[in-house]
Design goal:
By secondary structure, this protein is α/β, with parallel strands linked by helices. It has a single domain, classed as Rossmann fold. The chain is 27% helix and 19% strand. The chain has a seven-stranded mixed β-sheet, with helices on both faces. Strands 8-9 form a two-stranded antiparallel ribbon. β8 and β9 form a beta hairpin. α1 packs parallel to α4 and α2 runs parallel beside α3. The chain starts with a strand and ends in a 23-residue tail after the last helix.
Length: 240
Amino acid sequence: MGLIALCLFLKNSSITSYDAIKNNSTTKDSLGHGTAIAGVIMAPLNKQTVQGISPQVRLFDVKVLTDKGGGEVNDVINGINWCIKQDVDIINLSFGFQKDDKGLRNAINKAIEKDIIVIASAGNTLGLSTDYPAKYKNVISVSSIDKNLKRDPFAAKGKIDFVAPGVQIPVFNPKGEVKTVNGTSFATAFATGVVANILSENPHFQREDVIKSLKSTAKDLGKIGPDQEYGYGLIQFHSQ
């Protein structure tokens, strides 16, 4: 899978799929990464330990990675452009590249110009630099912490905006079985669910309003104030 985009304000969960690699409307998640991300965002109430952060969103499942988890930047660009045409509210990018790419940067800037909130994983770089596109100024970069609110040592440092739970996270695999996973990908999905909830309660909010809300409610961790390990801190949602 790869790229997840959301439209809000629907009463029941729904999913629309697009394969940006093959340019068709059918996707298959042999890897399980996209299924896990989607579950963190929107899994409905169930008897398992998996609980979605925002179960009533409309989800756009966009396959931009191969079944082995690799990917070409042009497929990601294609997926982003497709999402823009669908008029989505949020784009979740739970993956990254080590190098900047002009085409990717332009596609993301185009999405942001449309007031789409773009959220990306900082990367599991063993404490090295943040991946792209999370490294871009206008993208919300999310790193991961454990249950003790400590940074995952596998997570990137540098351009970090917020952190979210990303260690030993229960998720569904494509067979509906529960497993536990680690990584900034899943912290990013958590953050996307929080942003979806903020928008659902505040439908008049623009992108900058959401970011202001996130900064004002985040739980500061690490050094006082924004830093290169925790950013503004643990992303949170306070229902009105």
